[in-house]
Amino acid sequence: MEYLDFELPIKELEDQLDKCVVIGQESDVDVSNTCKQIEKKLEETKKNIYKNLTAWQRVQLSRHPSRPYTMDYIKALCGDSFLELFGDRGVKDDKAMVGGLGKIGDQSFMVIGQQKGFNTKTRQYRNFGMANPEGYRKALRLMKMAEKFGLPVVTFIDTPGAYPGLEAEERGQGEAIARNIFEMCRLKVPIICVIVGEGASGGALGIGVGDKVFMLENTWYSVISPESCSSILWRSWEFKEQAAEALKLTAPDMKKQKLIDDIIPEPLGGAHYDRETTFKTVEKFITKSYKELKDLSTAELTAKRMDKYCNMGEFKE
Question: Where are the beta strands (DSSP E) in the chain?
Fold first, then answer.
């Protein structure tokens, strides 16, 4: 297990507990009471740390290297039923954007999401989860296929942003994202979006328009990352913590502003501490949402979705 800076007190106590157990096993000394005391203190420390997280600490947790990625959710929820589909039928297949058909429970879905790598080789292969225009065009192709066959769409959002390279701009990055937003607003099947990690800028919005939009507890959703915001406002990354607070990018902030529908709770310590529980919770939210949406007519579905997004940003003083 890798520990973040603010998790070091937890690491110290877990190391103490491991040493205590080893002493008990290697000698005749009864250390059960000492172990219980350390376990109690460890539990209290975890609760104190994770229930008082700052915005920046949540950003750090969303990037934790042990955190489950899109393909982990797909494998857990769809199992062997997942059939990955490739290519945008124009340029190539974008490995940062994955998608295909799969069953969650007894219902077939079109599942789409950004995929990050878990080591140096796979991060390069997946372009660090930053999709090119062909990735968004592949996603749109799959959504249109889902619409044709009357299948609901599930998207998993986890990206530091769309790829900002020159070649991406040459192939129409902005147009591809804008086209996806436009088409998703009027797609004739239910769309359920889940932010499972980072939700940065247009890269997230390109597959983020839905009838139901959920955020896991320790994720973030914003027009810009705290580091980039800090570099623009203060010409330095040193103020990223202040930027994170000012951006109001956490799940509670998004729920308060009515930009998402609900927050999916995570196990104490984050999704990576108990993956199975996280997968089951996400599955419950998806299946419950689909049951609420499946009986709506096409006209009702699209009208409600349009109203939802048209009402965003309205305030009364």
Answer: 83-84, 97-104, 107-114, 153-159, 191-200, 212-216, 220-222, 262-264
Identify residue 113 by its one-letter amino acid code. Answer: G
Q: How far apart are CA 148 and CA 144, in angstroms?
A: 6
pTM of the model: 0.93
Q: Determine the Cα–Cα distance for residues 134 and 98; give it in Å rounded to an integer.
A: 11
Q: Say which residues have a Cβ less than 8 Å from residue 312's Cβ, sequence separation at least 6.
A: 258, 259
pLDDT in tens, 118-159: 899 999 999 999 999 999 999 999 999 999 999 999 999 999
Give the distance, in angstroms, between the CA of residue 107 and the centroid of all CA atoms in the same chain. 22
Q: In degrees rounded to 5, what are phi and psi of residue 274?
A: -145, 85
d(CA 58, CA 131): 23
Contact of 38 with 13, CB cutoff 8 Å: yes
Of 13, 161, 144, the C-alpha closest to 88 is 144
Token code pair at residue 153: 């769409």
